[in-house]
Amino acid sequence: MLTGGAIGIGLPMATGAAVACPDRKVITLQADGSGMYTLQALWTQARENLDCLTVILAYRSYATLHGEMTNVGVKEPCRNARRMLDLEEPYLDWTHLARGMGIGRAHG
Question: What pairs with residue 26 in β-bridges?
Fold first, then answer.
């Protein structure tokens, strides 16, 4: 079963939708782990002044990758594997990340 085929696609898809339909607001629900793959889409949204609202779901984990480990038969990942799949340290401050990309109205 393929579960991670769309990792990181939410932010760029929202950007494309906003470019294609500039008269409509685009609302995106994006998990934090997946969003880290394509964070730069926020910069494009700001640069192009696109009407996008992004809601980050802060799971603090690459949750899809946890599922992929299970799919390949890993019952209990070792400490190092678990550490590579979590987003606890350092803390991802999405408000500051968005502001750093030029999103002026970002808030947590």
Answer: 52
Candidates 103, 102, 19; CA nearest to 55 is: 103
The reported pTM is 0.82
Token reading at 52 = 């996008």
Q: Cis ω on the peptide bond leading into residue 77 (within 30° of 0)?
A: no
3-state secondary structure of 44: helix
Q: Quote the pLDDT of residue 108.
A: 67
N- to C-terminal Cα separation, the chain? 35
Which residue shows structure tokens 């009407």? 51
Q: In angstroms, rounded to a whole number, what is the distance separating the alpha carbons of residues 8 and 105?
A: 22
Q: What does the pLDDT look like over 21-37, one tens digit per residue?
A: 999 999 999 999 999 99
